[in-house]
Amino acid sequence: MGKHLGTLIWVVLLSMLAANPLWAAEEDEEPAPFVTPELVVPEPASAVMGWIDSRELQSLNGSWKLLVDPMQVGTPGGFFGGWATTRTPVDAFQLLEYSYPDAADIRVPGDFNTQRQELFFYRDTVWYQRNFKVEAEANTRYHLWFGGANFDATVFLNGTPVARHKGGYVPFSVDVTAHLQPEGNDLVIRINNRLGDDTVPTGRTDWWPYGGLTRDVMLVATPEQYIVNAKVVLNNDRNAITAEVATEGFAAGDEVTVVIPQLDISQTARISDNGDAQLSIPAQPELWHPGAPKLYRVELAAGDDRVSDQIGFRTIETSGTTIMLNGEPIKFKGISTHEEPIGRDGVAYSEADMRVLFSEAKNLGVNFVRAAHYPYSRHAARVADEMGILLWEEVPIYWNIAWENADTLAIARDQISRLVERDWNRASVVIWSVANETPYSESRMKFLGHLIDDVRELDDSRLVSAALLGDTRRELKHVAAHLAAHGQGSDIASDQEKAIFQGVLAAAGDAAPEPGSSFTLVIDDPLGELVDIVSYNEYFGWYYARALAPQMGVSEQTIRKLMLQFIPQVTMSTAFGKPMFISEFGAGAKAGKRGEGVWTEDYQAAVYRAQIAMLSQSPQVQGMTPWILKDFRAMLRTLPGIQDYRNRKGLIDQNGRRKQAFYVLRDFYNGPWANTH
Question: Which residue segment(s) compose the domain that 210 sits in?
Fold first, then answer.
């Protein structure tokens, strides 16, 4: 009996194995229960839905549920069946491996890293869930709109995958009319903030990769036929306002009307076969300027759809090495920022956050802010419009990118187009930047060339730039020779160090500079041919000293002291007849740390004084955005007791405490550069 029972059991097991491919793996195959098939998910709408704040909106912000999934077992089709819906046990015997009702609460918008301390360093998959109701009306379309989800987001509505988007800082939307349920809707978002070699940005970045639903989430209602977006700008001759309107669902010949009440403008155009309409309206509006940020109410109408916005009108261009705002020369008195609030960790996601951040920038006397190194929330440019701050906006192409990867290029092009289409009506935005500190290569030139072409095709009313790294190896070689010459006549260097300097000069031969001679640093990155403004990140007094000391065989202390004397003898220029912009310089300092040496407020202030002297005598330099307004979170910055995972180059610390260098820069902007508009 026992023998027959054992045989029977074995037969049953074999049958089960044959019926279940998961169990029926070959003996030499490793079972992989967590490997799931890739979901086929529709892409979100290619065009950005604009004029969003004037539409009929249902906010989906607030409290959501959060599940953490480092092994990605929640993917539909996986080992546990998928986490795309909220499920509750039908009885006490049903096994479920997840539960949204019992999950942790998370605030949207906001990042999960700082809301839950155990996720501070987490970079992987999480699942967001919430329910919402909507009384759907006839002849109405409903769109889920996301201001940003970092980085890779898949959207499930009532268990159906409806959209996927890669790129954490730009908006996307999807029409969900056909998926809504009258009794209530279950919205689930799978988000992964892990970055890799082929993402934009890559996994190696110098800021915190705050993950999650970091921007607003809304349900947008539109008529069946609606205005998708519209660009309304002043032409370069400053005598007409042009409007390019994109629509959905209208027939060729239907009308779009543009109204600007303050200018007594009401003009109509017909929609073409491709759904677009174009207008050119003679007008001479009061021009937007940092000192007088005039905004006009602009209204659009097509069929039953009505949208409006507050728009300023201005022109920006270059003339030789001069930047021209509204036809008048201007210098950009700026500061760089990150999208982090003052007074708390995490991502700045609200209008109030941006007002506080930009107000502190204004306290410096700035007229310009570099919004680095990724698109900020839509509130940033709107607040800048109102406050009279010029903006540099950029996409997160930082250091190296997979330049030859077609998918990486597609992600980059998607991000730059969504940024431009979101903010092309913001008068404050005057520069689109396509990269930061990217090294020379032909593939890099081709990659960024595509982005520059895309930007100019979408919006030729602004300037294009990129923060260049330069050829640091060659540049440092020249700097070393001049420092050696400078050190020969200085009492800072010891006799032994002077002997080393003499050797450096002897090696330079006829090219050796004379003691006390000036030095012109020429930036000739070939990308300068493609951009309108040649922007350059330089760190005289900070990283350069660290690099030169071991190469020259002298102490870092000596190099730093010599460099503070040498910097004012340097002139910055480019090989191109274009304006030059210093997009970064600076030094780190722990707030409250005083005395000699690095990481002190005193040393940071000394670097700023030397830099200001140098840049003031560089005629090609038409602006600067020192690095950076506020200390910010950065995974690369680990020095205990000083950095503690923060980049300390801020002029204020994370709580808003001002360092000495803040006042050095403020005095310069309010003094020598006070009358540069």
Answer: 52-223
